[in-house]
Amino acid sequence: MIGLVFGLPSLRVKGFYLAIATLAAQFIIPWLTKHTFTDYLGGTEGRIPTPVPQIGDFLFNEPSRFIYITLGVLILTTFIATNISRTRLGRAFVAIRDNDLAAELLGVNLFGYKLRAFFIAAMYAGLAGALKAHYQRAIGTEFGYGLTESIVLLGMLVVGGLGTNLGPFLGTTFIVVMQDVSNVVGSSFASIMPPEMTARLLTSFRPIFFGLILMFFLIFEPRGLAHRWQLLKAAWRLRPFSH
């Protein structure tokens, strides 16, 4: 329902301006949780404990056990998203994404379908937040997804490929691997730097490395890894013919 509220500007603005308009939720919701209904939402410093999930006597109290829940949810949500793209709703989403004016001329209700897109996206985001809340045993203003996490998640989509079902998997895998690589490379650089610059380099190298990756993909591969994968599959089917 909150996603529907912040989806209301979607009819008037789009693209970058829509992202900025919906970014307001990143600041409004934390402020509300800090200053309203403090007895229920925890207030400024509060946190709401969440129970450990369990089925019978089996507790999902360890990462090696909790992964069964997250993996099951991942498979289910991926199945739903894949099948949505094959329905009338999914085809309307694709039409609006490609050209909203042409879609409206074909009889697609822009406002209604954009609100449905916001509703589905907010449902997925809420489900991810619920999983994180139970994984970390608490939820609060400082225990959710901040602006930095939102930027990283958006970067995963950009790198993987927007508007594809495969893109989030490729983008997430690539960014996680690159974060580990940045830690290794940053530590290597820090070992040859003066001691007074070591801590500063270790804290700043990772975001710089992440920003460079995003710039590289926006310039050289704006359609993401999913598009490159489609090109590779097409080239494999056509081999050995160059055309």
Mean pLDDT, rounded to whole units? 82
Spell the H/E element sequence: HHHHEEEHHHHEHHHH
Major beta sheet, strand line-up = 1-4
Structural class by SSE content = mainly alpha
Counting structural domains, the number is 2
Q: Tell me what portion of residues adopts beta-strand conformation.
A: under 5%
Radius of gyration: 21 Å
| Discrete helix count | 12
Largest sheet features: 2 strands, antiparallel
**How much helix is in the residues?**
over 70%
Q: pLDDT below 50 for ≥5 consecutive residues: which ranges?
A: none
The first-to-last residue Cα distance is 50 Å
Based on CA inertia axes, which overall geometry fits?
globular
